[in-house]
Amino acid sequence: MDAEAIKRSLGGSGLRCTPQRYAVMAFLMEHNSHPTAAQIFEAVNRVDPRSSRATTYNNLRDLVQAGLVREVAVEGRAARFDAKGMRHHHFICDRCGNVEDIEWYDVPRPASRSLGKRMLRECELIFRGLCTKCALRDTLPVKCRRHVGTR
Amino acid sequence: MDAEAIKRSLGGSGLRCTPQRYAVMAFLMEHNSHPTAAQIFEAVNRVDPRSSRATTYNNLRDLVQAGLVREVAVEGRAARFDAKGMRHHHFICDRCGNVEDIEWYDVPRPASRSLGKRMLRECELIFRGLCTKCALRDTLPVKCRRHVGTR
DNA sequence: TGAAGAATTTAGATTCTATCTAATGTGACA
DNA sequence: TGTCACATTAGATAGAATCTAAATTCTTCA
Fold first, then answer.
1. How many other C-beta atoms lie within 10 A of the C-beta of residue A76?
2. Could you tell me which residue, A2 or B62, shows the higher pLDDT?
3. CA A8 distance to own-chain centroid
4. pLDDT digits (tens, 9 = 90+) for A103-112
5. Among partner residues B74, B121, B129, which is closest to A119 by beta-carbon distance?
6. CA of B20 to C1' of C12 (A)
7. Which residue is nearest to nucleotide D26 (CA to C1')?
8. What pLDDT, on the 0 to 100 scale, is given for residue B28?
C-alpha cells in the first residue's frame, strides 16, 4: 500500500529497498492469507521484475530476522509468512493446513521459576482445529462435499 | 518403562504392538529431549530389531494421530516429537532449535466471536527465546564459547 | 566522476526432510 | 490352515529450503 512506509521500515532495519525485496514485503502487506514461500515467489514473478527462488528465500529470511515478517511453521507443510501488522494469534487448520488470524488478547507469561535462566523473547498462542470451510465440509453429506473447496 | 502400559495404550488406539512401534513409543517415553524422527530412527536401530526409515515415520504418524505423541514443528528444522505425558507448554530456542518443556498452566480461550464457525480442538502456548545454554553462551567472552556445547 | 567494496541477485546444484511404491512379512481369527 | 487386514521394508521420489560461485547493483568516498 504505502510504498514510502515500506522503504522506511526496510531502511530502518538496515536492509536496502531492492525491487525484489520490496515486492515480497508489499505482497505480504496486501495479503493476509499467510502464503508459503513458493506462493510468494510465484505471485511476485507474475508481475514484472523477475526474481529467483533463492532471492525470495533470502529476502524472507532477512525480513524475518529484521522482525518485519513472521514465519509460521506448520507440521508436514511448507512454512507460512505473515507481515507483522496488528498483533494477533494464529489458527492452524488440522485438515487443510491453512493459517488464519485470531484477534489478539494478552497471554499470561510463565512463572519465572519455570523459565530458569532462559531468555524469553515472545509468547505465541496457536489454536488448532478445523477452519470454517473444513468444519462445514465435515457436516455435509458426502455427495455435497465437492462443492466446498478444500483450499 | 512400563511395557504393559505401552501395550495397553497402543491397543486402546487400535494399533498393534509391533516391535518397531513399541520401540518408538518406549524411546519417546524414556527421553524428554524432543528428538527428531531421524534421531529416533537412529536410536531405535542402535538396539536390536532393525527398523526402516519409512516405518519410523509411519509409526510416528500413527502415534500422533492416535493422540499418544505430539509433533512440534520448528521453523527451518526437522519436526520434534514428544510422548504426551503430563501436560506442558514448549519453549523453542531461537538459536539452536531445541525444544524444552515448560510447566503447564491454563491458557485462556479466545472469545467465541473471534472463532466464528471454526472448530477449536486445542490451544498451544509456545515460548521463544534463548535456552539456558545459548543464553549463557551469549554472555561469555568469545574465547570461552567453545566450552559451551551448541548440540 | 569512478574505483573499491559491500550488499544483493541469480541459476542451478545440493541437502535435508518426509512420503510413496510395490513387494514382502506378520498376526488375528474363522 | 487359509484368509485378510495390518505392518514393514529398501529404495525411489517428492517437496522445501539452502548453498555455490559468479554476476550485478548500490554506496561511499577519494
1. 10
2. B62
3. 21
4. 999 999 999 9
5. B129
6. 40
7. A16
8. 96
Residue A148 binned pLDDT confidence (cut-offs 50, 70, 90): very low
**Nearest-CA neighbor of B151 among B129, B122, B131, B128?**
B131
C-alpha cell at B150: 551448541
3-state secondary structure chain B: CCHHHHHHHHHHCCCCCCHHHHHHHHHHHHCCCCCEHHHHHHHHHHCCCCCCHHHHHHHHHHHHHCCCEEEECCCCCCCEEEECCCCEEEEEECCCCCEEEEECCCCCCCCHHHHCCCEEEEEEEEEEEECHHHHHHHHCCHHHHHHCCCC
What domains does chain A contain, in order, with CATH numbers? 1-84 (1.10.10.10), 86-151 (3.30.1490)
Footprint of strand C on the protein (CB under 7 A): A 15-16, 18-21, 49-55, 58-59, 62, 76; B 16, 36-38, 53-54, 57, 61, 77-79
Is there a contact between B21 and B13 (Cβ–Cβ < 8 Å)?
Answer: no
CA B8 – CA B15 distance, rounded (Å):
10
pLDDT value for B43: 94
ipTM for the whole complex: 0.86
Residues of chain A neighbouring B73 (CB-CB closer than 8 A) = 73-76
pLDDT 10s digits, B32-45: 999 999 999 999 99
- The per-residue pLDDT for B114 is 95
Cα A22 to Cα B149: distance, rounded to the nearest angstrom? 38
CA dist B123 and A126 (Å) reads: 6
Task: Label residue B100 by pLDDT band (50, 70, 90).
Answer: very high
Three-state secondary-structure class, residue A78: coil
Question: Does residue B21 carry a pLDDT above 90?
Answer: yes
